Amino acid sequence: MAVTIRFHKDLDLEEAIQYRAGQKVALKQRPEVVDTIVEYDPMMVPPVQLMNDPHPRYPEELILVTQQPSVSLGSFRTPGHSKVQYLDLWGRVSLISKSS
Fold first, then answer.
1. How distant, in Å, are the alpha carbons of 34, 62, 90 from that of 19?
2. What are phi and psi of 52, to 5 degrees?
3. Residue 4 has pLDDT above 60, yes or no
4. DSSP code at position 55
């Protein structure tokens, strides 16, 4: 994903980094709903555009969701009764083994 941030001399650089495209956030009004920032444009008022929200938002309306490294190891059976083991690292799934 390419990130484009347009800067203005009065822009707070820290805010631009915190609210960068791809960052997960939740609305303070609905903290159980997590969304992803599509764009931070300091020339836009409000400057934050979310993926699943048609209305731009101000940073003070949002809660940053901490992005912890996500690793999981799992397995499942296919319809043909093969056992598949996999490793999921940040959504990138790697096949470890497949046995019948």
1. 14, 9, 20
2. -110, 20
3. no
4. S
